[in-house]
Amino acid sequence: MTCLLIEVLRDPARLAGLDLAAWDRLLPQARAAGLTARLALLAEELALQVPAPVRPHLTAARTLAERQRQAVTWEAHKLDTALAPTGLPVIVLKGAAYVLGELAPARGRLFADIDVLVPKEGLGAAEAQLMLHGWHSGHHDAYDQRYYRRWMHELPPMTHLRRGTSLDVHHDLLPQTARLKTRPERVIAAAQPIPGYRCLRLPRLEDLVLHAATHRFCEGEWELGLRDLTDLDALLRLGMARPDWWANLIERAVELNLAYPLRLALRYAQRLLATPVPDQVLATLARHTGRLAWGWRDALFLRGLTPAGCAPAGTGLARSILYVRGHWLRMPLHLLLPHLLYKAMRSGHSPP
User: What's the CA angle centered on 36, arms 316 and 23, to 5 degrees?
Assistant: First the structure.
């Protein structure tokens, strides 16, 4: 089954020829992928007259995305006020970085939370300051606290008591137990101050690409996989305007030990979104990551990245396997099996 949403993302001019029946297929796919607002922006850029029943959906999605963008900017100022007294550099990641850096992926982007990265040695000071300013952890279970603080790359997720905003405070790009060992201190050192903020900093573009690739291809949740891939596509196209972009990106991937997720990201961005990745770049990455078996990877990742409404047969099973794979990459087997067993037992006994 072909995916109309992917076809449109590859070639936005396809929107011009869609009738109402095609929009009826496209909108649920975009909604499932978190990309309805981006469709609205594409239609506006092409000056399309979309069918009247479609317009309210596009308008509502764009309005929501704009409100969330404003909320992220507001929350960033609150974070800056809270964390500036620590003297720590606070690196914004993912969606918040795209908004504060005024980067292409911010257009029409929806947000679930704000992600920041701080030096590990400053984690306690950052948490204390955040608590003083109204953020708290909703994970009171002793197991969850131990899980995050001993094994993960972040504090337990925090929520503001009054505003209800969600915040993830990272000290690494991957869990401490992950098979890949990264170098977050180099990401922090290379980040640049953001005008108008005292302690918030923006990663260099190569690091944003590498973090996006790592987040997407080392995680277990795939409902928004296509949205994340469109973020990567936009970042890569932005980088292509820079001299020596590909050489610098590969060099940085090797330096941060993230050549493997980058190779996956480039392969599937090229295949699904027609991102113009030179074959020589993929060949160079192959020398740094070794030979990979692509048959089963393609079967899993192409299904994982296809949104609901056009997903091929076997997508449910593929995403289940990818979920387990994500945990396997994050934790060694002797920790993973008890963890999954505990989560399954707790889920099975949770009240309705």
Answer: 85
Any alpha helices (H) in the chain, and if so which ranges? 4-10, 20-33, 36-45, 55-83, 94-100, 123-132, 142-146, 184-190, 205-217, 225-239, 245-255, 259-273, 279-289, 294-304, 315-330, 333-348
Q: What is the pLDDT of residues 176-211, one digit of tens each?
A: 888 889 999 999 999 999 999 999 999 999 999 999
- pTM value surpassing 0.85: yes
Domain that holds residue 287: 4-338
Q: Are 8 and 272 in contact (CB under 8 A)?
A: no
Residue 344 lies inside a defined structural domain of this protein: no
* Count of the separate structural domains present in the chain: 1
* pLDDT for the residue numbered 73: 94
Q: How far apart are CA 245 and CA 239, in angstroms?
A: 6
Residue 347 domain flag: no
CB atoms within 10 A of CB 209: 25
Terminal C-alpha separation, the chain: 36
Angle at 166 between CA 161 and CA 169, to 5 degrees: 110
